[in-house]
Amino acid sequence: MLSNWSPREPSEFDRQIFELVVPAAHHLRKALKAIDWNGFEEQLACYYSPDRGRPAESPVQMLKLEYLRYHYNLSDRQVIDRGSTDIAFRYFLQVDVGGLLPDPSLLCRFRGRLGTKGFHKVFDQVVATARAEGLVKDRLRLKDASHVIADIAVPTTLALVAQARDKLLTAAHPFDPIRVDGERINIELLRDSSKDQQNEQRLLARVTHLREILLWIEELPAPEDASTSAQWQKFLDQRQLAHKILVDQENPKAGDKTRSTVDPEARRAKHGDWYDGYLLDILVDADSEIITQVNVLPANGDEGMDAVELIRQEEAAQGNDIESLSIDGMGFNGPLLRELEDPDGLAVNTFVPPQKDPANGLFVPDDFVEDVESGRVICPAGKKSRYRDRDSKNRATTHRFAHKDCQCCPLLSQCVEKLPKRFGRNVRKNDYAKEYRQLREKASTQAYASIRSEHPKVERKLCEVLNRHGGRRAHYRGTEKVLIQELMTCTATNIKRIVKLAFATNVAAAAT
Q1: Distances in Å between the alpha carbon of 255 and those of 151, 245, 268, 438?
Q2: d(CA 358, CA 364)
Q3: Is the pLDDT of residue 506 over 60?
Q4: Cα-atom radius of gyration of the chain, to the nearest Å?
Q5: Mean pLDDT over residues 144-164, rounded?
Q6: All residues at 6 or more sequence positions from 389 whose CB lies less than 8 Å from its CB, including other chains
Q7: DSSP assignment of 239-283, as one string?
Q8: How far apart (Å, rounded) are the C-alpha atoms in residues 55 and 448?
Q9: How far is Cα 34 from Cα 16, in angstroms, rounded to an integer?
Q10: Which residues contact 92 (CB under 8 A, 6 or more apart)?
Q11: CA separation for the pair 464, 492 (Å, rounded)
């Protein structure tokens, strides 16, 4: 139940202690003044019952404790322990010198109450505060992503299959305990019979056993309260995970493999080196260097297309209209460029380092004119292609000329270095050639050079979030929980920046 909590004015004794011990230039003094913390009270109230349960701790105080955790990179217990002895913490929390702080376990409950939606609202409100102060502009957003290492120990394939089997049987036990106990006896027999075999044979035996388990698992009837039963939902999740791991074993060269049963959403990708975990993707305002939007993807997520999601999230939350975007080479993506620059859609002027065309002096695809009626292309010598092949996956069409047309062409030396024996020139026309051509033209302008010179700001901001505030390693498991961590990490980083900009402005105003 949400109590009728309101901030209490400190006593004269407390005020004297705070004035003596907490310097005027202390960051927490500035953070308390720069952010309207009590303004979060109404926003957080919807996550509490108005009339059920015991009176809750102040949600604003809990949010402040979360902020302290991420600003100083502390655990739940560490932030409470430090708040018990650190006068600056007590001043920021507006707790009397002799007052008691909440139990550390309540911080976990607080995060569970808010979830990703609640923490996203907190993040957006901090950004809105910066906008209200005139700090955040809409001129330019800088986008970049970096890796977050998952909180897992990656098992061998043999151990992964065994873990999936054991978790599935544990989840199925409430619904068929006798059959599960029998399968556990089979596991012991299997372990004894295969202990002297090679790992490949042991793996095959365990995969086969898992398939056999799933045959009867699939036939378990759903309970009457299936839609609300936590046990049944956990069982369904474990069954789906077991199927996913079996599919991974059947398709060893396929991507998107499950790496751990502890964190099934973590994925493997390369960012400098191979890692298992997630991607932190952010937008940064180029003028204030404040993070304006945050997202977390699996490690193998589509970082380029996530730019569209980030921009839509910010514009929906802030009601603004972003003018330009700078993104790294991941943005050289036709569907992404078309969606971002669509004048009837987002209409964002996008700056991306283009991939260079091979500078061999030969005719390029743009030199071949498309004939809309026939669906063929016409070469600079006036010949029309004879064959075509559609590549739907890569959104391109390959046109091929007849060998005899190319062999006697007076422009052959300008078209190919060496003519194939059986076929003529191949021309690959990409569906997004127009977008790529416009991007290359844009890359030769002074505006492009100026915009790209600002891009390192987002790289430095990512380093600050990940390396100074504990964002590099996931403290939790699952995309949503990791997103909560990164939202609060970015919120703490933003507040630090807002404090710096706000008080720098005050100092400059006082000096004049």
Answers
A1: 21, 12, 9, 33
A2: 9
A3: no
A4: 30
A5: 91
A6: 397, 398, 400
A7: HHHHHHHHHHHH-TT-SS----SSSTT-EEEEESEEEEEEEEEEE
A8: 57
A9: 22
A10: 28, 29, 31, 32, 64, 68
A11: 11
Q: What percent of the chain has pLDDT over 70?
A: 95
What's the rounded Cα separation, in Å, for the pair 488 and 475?
12
Which of these, 294, 254, 293, 289, lies nearest to 278 by C-alpha position? 294
| Helices then strands, each counted (H, E), the chain | 18, 11
Nearest to 35 by CA among 71, 2, 3, 10: 71
> Which residues, at least 6 apart from 328, have a Cβ–Cβ distance to it below 8 Å?
143, 144, 352, 353, 455
Q: What are the E-state strand segments in 361-405?
A: 369-371, 376-378, 387-391, 396-400
Amino acid (1-letter code) at residue 49: S
Band of pLDDT at residue 169, cut at 50, 70 and 90 = very high
| Between 20 and 62, residue with greater pLDDT | 62
Say if residue 350 is exposed, middle or buried (CB neighbours under 10 Å; 0-12, 13-18, 19+).
Answer: buried
CB 67 within 8 A of CB 491: yes
